[in-house]
Amino acid sequence: MSMQTANKTSLMDNLRSRLEGVNLRQNGIFLALIGLLIFFAATTPGAASLTPDNVSNLVMQNGYILVLAIGMVMVIIAGHIDLSVGSVACFIGAVAGIFVCRPLEQDGWDWLPAMPWYIGILAAIVVGAIVGVWQGFWVAYVGIPAFIVTLAGMLIFRGLALMTLQNSNIGPFPDEFRAIGNGFLDKENALGLSIGLPADMNAMALILTAVGILALWLRELTTRRGRVKYGQPTEPVIWFLVKNIFLSLMVAGAGYQLAQANGIPYLLLLMIFLIVVYSLVMNKTTFGRHIYAIGGNLNAAMLSGINVRRVNFWLFVNMGALAALSGILITARMNSAVPKAGDGFELDAISSVFIGGAAVQGGVGTVTGSMVGGMIQGILANGMNLNSVGIDSQMFIKGLVLLFAVAFDVWSKRRK
Amino acid sequence: MTSNILEMRSITKVFPGVRALDNVSLNVARGEIHAICGENGAGKSTLMKVLSGVYPHGTYEGDIVYEDEVMSFKNLRDSEAKGIVIIHQELALSPHLSIAENIFLNNEIKRFGLIDWNKTGQEAQKLIARVGLRENPDTKIKEIGVGKQQLVEIAKALSKRVKLLILDEPTAALNDEDSAHLLDLLRHLKGQGITCIIISHKLNEIASIADKTTIIRDGKTIETLDMHKDKVDQERIIKGMVGREMENRYPQHTAKVGAEILRVENWTAHHPEETNRVVVDNVNINVRKGEIVGLAGIMGAGRTEFARSLFGHSWGSKISGKVFINGKEAKVSTIQDAIDSGLAYATEDRKRYGLNLIDDIKRNISLASLKKFVKRGLVDDNREFVVASEFRESMNIKAPSVNSIVGKLSGGNQQKVVLSQWINTNPEVLILDEPTRGIDVGAKYEIYTIIQKLADEGKGVIMISSELPELLGICDRIYAIAEGRITGEVDKKDFKPELLMKYMTTEKGTK
What we know:
The complex is a heterodimer of chains A (416) and B (511).
Chain A: H1 2-20, H2 24-43, H3 52-77, H4 85-101, H5 117-142, H6 146-165, H7 175-182, H8 190-194, H9 203-229, H10 237-260, H11 266-284, H12 286-296, H13 298-303, H14 308-334, H15 345-355, H16 367-386, H17 391-415
Chain B: E1 4-15, E2 18-29, E3 33-37, H1 44-52, E4 61-66, E5 69-71, H2 76-81, E6 84-87, H3 99-103, E7 110-111, E8 114-115, H4 117-130, H5 146-159, E9 164-168, H6 176-191, E10 195-199, H7 203-209, E11 212-217, E12 220-226, H8 234-242, E13 260-270, E14 278-288, E15 292-296, H9 303-310, E16 317-325, E17 328-329, H10 335-341, E18 343-346, H11 350-354, H12 361-366, E19 374-375, E20 378-379, H13 381-395, H14 411-423, E21 429-433, H15 441-456, E22 460-465, H16 468-474, E23 477-482, E24 485-491, H17 497-504
Parallel strand pairs in B: 3-10, 3-11, 6-9, 9-10, 15-22, 15-23, 18-21, 21-22
Antiparallel strand pairs in B: 1-2, 1-4, 4-5, 7-8, 11-12, 13-14, 13-16, 16-17, 19-20, 23-24
Helix pairs in contact in B: 4-5
């Protein structure tokens, strides 16, 4: 009898220690995303949600929110919030318009030197970082809660945007500038045609997809080998294989659909780059670790010698720069800087982060989780559009999804 | 009707891993002032929480008999309805509301469902007159001093028709004049038939005011002294508080003391908000290699404040004094400076100040020394895992792996994570603030062994503890601190609890 119980407990322990390598929350949100994909594939007329053009659209329509969500998740992990990002994006769109288009010479901007489009973009991002310096100063060094500073910023930068735009639009933008938001890598499929592929089978897209899958496996395998070598617990082999084969299939499917549309958007390349870099920052740099430590226990972080003010300051500078990038993307996509740009972006970015598993109290969250959260929102909106759901119901449903996602999180934590 | 208003019979209260109260009995006669004495952590506050319903009926064993009836309080409201009111050390007043509003908070005088402000003011006026407070009832709480706030708390208790008033360390934050006034008031209330239980560390006060004193030690009642019959003085109370068997609770250890490793000269620090209040007053201490130096003092004596002001000025304002580490003056004005100079400080409150409870063991251990794990700009998490696993081995941290979340560990294991975190910064001197608070006896023994091992490795250790026997058991030398000043220094050969207790209760001007 006692032998049996002992056996049982060791079995449970075994199972538990095996499960320890599996991040349930992160995988849960990922499963929700897949469920949503399947749901809309089944319900939209002619599986419209998975057509090449729609997959391409999904990337283009959500990029600028995802860029914001990257900065936002960092801010939220540290226990702050940023309500100003939509206004900042609009302001920087206008600033980029001045830099790149210089349309308002008669209004006093003629002293500015003409900038090539790439210098204009860099300069606009620097302006965004300066916006971050301003907000970071108040939050980190004066000690005003970020909620207040960025609520004020929401008004301040919307106001500055309107002043800069002088109540009109700036545009059109040069083609190179527009390409960041709208362009595709080898759209004409020159490479594919030269090797005899049909026009609607973009060779570059196929190659990059293959490279992407290869990189995924390489990274997963080296990480796993490292963990095994140092005796760290790892996911069960089966789970590891299932997960990565599945992921590869998804990447392959998306890549194949993109190849049939216009190819890989530049925006997608930019997003992948940002996600990789910022995941690395959050997990493997002292800056990222300090952000988690501050959000997890501010007092303990301080007593461990972390310069909390400096970390908070740079968080907002980073957020400003990313909001600027988001503003450039939306402006490029619309080919015009407009006063209403970025309206409500802050809310989409914040919901992405919370659907993606971040905690309201801070200390918890991941870049990839927020990206999945953002995609859930994007796919939801896109799928509802395809199903001709009215904007009223869309708002209603998006609200419920946010509430239930966080409620599920709170509830599952309490059960432990 | 018996003469006892309250009989607590065989109260036992168990927390996970700790038996906080073990068969405690307390009999309080009607109309007396009854003192409860014991060291920090002896179980006094737990007992009062059981009595007032903070720990509801059913979470403890034993009976509370109050006015000849067995009580089963479910919360504070139940006990207050019966006339039992507890006033905590941290006052529960709302600073932005007026005296009158605070007195009747959650007990408002209403007419037709609306608050009757005229009556409220009138009643408040009567109540504050009863406690001898001369203030306008409309004055905001934040505008009066702590002594007067204490009186407002008592007025509030009177408004609830209190029969049994419990005061937890009522004079700890008061100056002598306010304390004297408060004690007079208690005598006065006694004359009006109100029974009073008072928890205090100030033994001279107890000796002067109490009719009976019950001594609690390690969650057990030791004795109840009749202050009028038995010729009881402070020495007698101290003896009851500290006298316990000391064998085998502390590992044997012979110190190999070397050269001076830390010297602090004329260290003074003021309160961070009330910048005129001196909290650490011209402290001079030294620590030698391989030596465990204790810092003994009652709560509020300035032990933690001294340690934290020393550790990167992380507490206090207008800090002055010099620090020498290995004979060289050290810069300690920021925490990073202090760490770089070779200081480490493990906090008394590991949950609030020590650990990121939602993160795992390895990341907590690496946090204060993260720089050491960086390779080519990136944190090497494999090495982090290896180092943390070594600590798990050597410190015997009981967890399935170092990837376990710290918040799920027991107190003792959490404390070992805190110690690992600071040992990992490779300090010269470790300041350990209450390293065994809230952990069970077995884990305490392990912590003592770790501390002694650190000393044997040539580090200097400063140990702060409220438990005097613990300091006597493992320290090589003890400084006593009272009201922010060092009031005595005792070498191991002269260790005697009575002597230290005397130093610890030395007040200004009585030396």
